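During the second year of the project, the team shifted from modelling isolated chains to modelling whole assemblies. The rationale, set out in the original proposal, was that interfaces cannot be judged from single-chain predictions alone. As a representative example for this report, we include one of the complexes processed in the last quarter. Its constituent sequences, exactly as entered into the pipeline, are reproduced here:
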Amino acid sequence: ETGVTQTPRHLVMGMTNKKSLKCEQHLGHNAMYWYKQSAKKPLELMFVYNFKEQTENNSVPSRFSPECPNSSHLFLHLHTLQPEDSALYLCASSQEGLAADTQYFGPGTRLTVL
Amino acid sequence: SQKIEQNSEALNIQEGKTATLTCNYTNYSPAYLQWYRQDPGRGPVFLLLIRENEKEKRKERLKVTFDTTLKQSLFHITASQPADSATYLCALDMNSGGYQKVTFGIGTKLQVIP
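Output from the structure prediction step:
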């Protein structure tokens, strides 16, 4: 498989559930990103990892917990979410995490919180 | 406050015409500006990058201009086709603490009418 993959593609969860989103990149990149895309709003950067180290946490609520065990994998652990957290969650990767890098996006996970 | 504005939510044009999309920003100083295409339910796909010292960049039917004095980028698609129908995102690409930080606009939805 090539590019950036995300699983699951769709997820419906209750506010008391715990779930995880998975992202895998097959591009040999060293930087990975989580974005949130809500209707009528621009992509919002959530977390950035460079060489497995978290370098950005964009004031994201603690009910979202990222994990980057290696340069190819990124997880977003979810617990006690709110209905307003329903959105498309996009993972991306880039070569070195430096300005001018192209970001390669996965297809996203459509999350619905009931 | 920092703001990125893309000219309109939706733009309808006739097939064969040139589509022009606008991206204006305030209180940013990007070193680069990127344009992405996003189809419904999918992640954005990179199209073009232009540097702050470049006035214009071309790729096939696409042309991007970047005016750092006006704080504006224009994105042109010549000889537009129905397959060009998508949402186009402008993204400011900056260096933040030694790493890349990309801030996206909300996008312009382009509809090319046959």
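The longest strand of chain B covers residues 86-96. The mean pLDDT of chain B is 93.
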